[in-house]
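Supplementary Methods, section 5.1.

A reviewer requested that the exact input to the structure prediction be made available. We therefore reproduce it here, unchanged from the version used in the analyses.
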Amino acid sequence: MKFSYNSRQLHKALAPWVFLPLFLSALSGVAYRFSKDFLGYSRDEVHWLMSLHEGEWLGNNGELVYVILNSLGLLWMLFTGFKMFSKKNSFTKKVTKSEAKG
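The structure derived from this sequence is encoded token-by-token as follows.
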């Protein structure tokens, strides 16, 4: 129970910090693929989008840190979000079953 409460609090605290890098990576990745495949731009013309996506603009060490933190942030948000979601669903299932009996 305590881990559940702590993970919920950490999820809530980290969400604003994790959102922007993940949103930037998702948006630039989709824009890169869409521009190449559907708009016909060459790889060189849209490389700046891939640079944003991978964090190249932070330098070699910064790129590595950006990718690792982005990955860990996404995994943490998925793990804690799934735990909260599954607990919420199991609670509503228990309530509806007990209401059906009563």
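DSSP finds three helices and no strands in the chain. These observations are discussed further in the main text.
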